[in-house]
Design goal:
Blueprint (H helix, E strand, L loop, with lengths): L4 H15 L8 H8 L3 H13 L3 E4 L5 E4 L8 H9 L24 H16 L3 H5 L11
Antiparallel strand pairs: 1-2
Helix pairs in contact: 1-2, 1-4
Amino acid sequence: MKISTRGRYSLRMMIDLAQHYNEGFIALKDISARQNISKKYLEQIIPFFNRSNLLLANKGHMGGYQLAKHPSEITVREIFESAEGSLTPVSCMDNSPNICENAANCLTLPVYQGLYEVIINYLNSISLQDVISNKPDSCEYYI
């Protein structure tokens, strides 16, 4: 699994908003400057979070964006799924039930299902608050 640029920049943008959570709506130009990500690219990311109800938007002079929930209530999984879509390691797992004609006899499917479970459990165990508190290693997940 490889996280795309959109996924990486999405996480950085959401971390920035978490760091400034108590400051109201934050302009994209400010996030852009702090994160060294073009404002135009951030504008392309915003719709993914609007669909996921992770952001609130305010237009006008004091406009900008803020997290829709407290940073402790937003997981890295939610961010990556908003930006990347499915986090399944193979496309045959994108449907439930699995519609692959070989699923019933596939010897590799359990490997991919196990990998997916590890990824999801790990990403679910890290909130934005954990990241900004610099303590993702304190999460309750062990391999």
